[in-house]
Amino acid sequence: MLRILLGIAIAVGAVAAAPGVNAAPKAAVSIPNQAGIQRAVDRGRMIYAYDQAAWHGTDDMLTKIPHPESVVGGWIVDGPAESPELVFFDKNEADPHAVYVAQFRDNKLVSSRLLGFGAETKLSPERIRLIKARKIGLDAFFANKVERCTNRPYNTVVMPAPLPGGPTLVYVLTPQTDNDTMPFGGHYLIEVSADGKASALRPFTKSCISLPLRDKGKDATVALTITHLLDPVPTEIHVFTSLSAHMPVFVLTTQNQLSWTVEGDRISPLAPKKTK
């Protein structure tokens, strides 16, 4: 048995199935905007890896720094998605230095250490740019006074410019506040140019949306569904959400009336229904 929950104005929901029921098989279909799909996959995978590193690294850092509020000024994550590095830096805004560093492999913490005084705490110019871009992006975000989807602090993910001289990508993400729902709305992108200018906010939905991860009945939720209004193909947020929820996301893009499956870091179009 399949169950789809529909939200107001935008179709969203969770697909629930009894044990042994699988999603419909995908058929061969031409794929439009392959570059946009690949960009969504690459960025979504990176957002998830960086978000996981910040989450698990924070838990570890709190065991090593008793009163971080008096020491830590913020954090950044960089490196490839499969092996990112997390750095917490101090409160010296003019010349921040690292106080904690952690390495990850396949979303698992493999090593971490506190850093003492000395040259090892000096941050690279690339990391300084990420820190500055994060502040510029957050300042621009809060200046827009967008609707909050939760009263919890936002999460941030900062990515280096995809191309030399291009903008740094600053994602501001509504956090997951419980194990039973997944936020789909309240996620934004701000691009910060090389000369420190913030772009307009790029929203990924038009309203706050949360999808249930667990059915109140006996059926198990096996997939999420959402109608996407803003792009012709699924975005990095769909990939990030699928990876975070550990289940597929079915996406209907209204610009071209195409249906898609996002399964982790794979995006596939569904074959349209045949008409008689």
Report on the architecture of this protein.
This protein has 276 residues and is α+β, with helices and mostly antiparallel strands. Among the domains are: 1-30 and 214-270, no CATH class; 124-205, no CATH class. The protein has helices at 34-64, 125-143, 236-245, and strands spanning 12-17, 72-78, 85-90, 98-105, 108-114, 155-159, 168-173, 181-183, 188-192, 202-203, 210-212, 220-228, 249-253, 258-263, 266-269. The protein has a five-stranded mixed beta sheet, covered by helices on one side. The protein has a four-stranded antiparallel beta sheet with strand order 2-3-4-5, with helices on both faces. The two termini are 26 Å apart. Mean pLDDT is 86; it is low at 1-12 and 15-28.
Largest sheet: 5 strands, mixed
> Which range best describes the helical content: under 10%, 10-25%, 25-40%, 40-55%, 55-70% or over 70%?
10-25%
**Widest beta sheet: strand line-up:** 1-12-13-14-15
Mean pLDDT comes to 86
Distance from first to last alpha carbon: 26 Å
Compressed to H and E, one letter per element, the order equals EHEEEEHEEEEEEEHEEE
| Contiguous runs where pLDDT drops below 50 for at least 5 residues | 1-12, 15-28
Task: Give a short synopsis of this structure.
The chain is of the alpha+beta class.
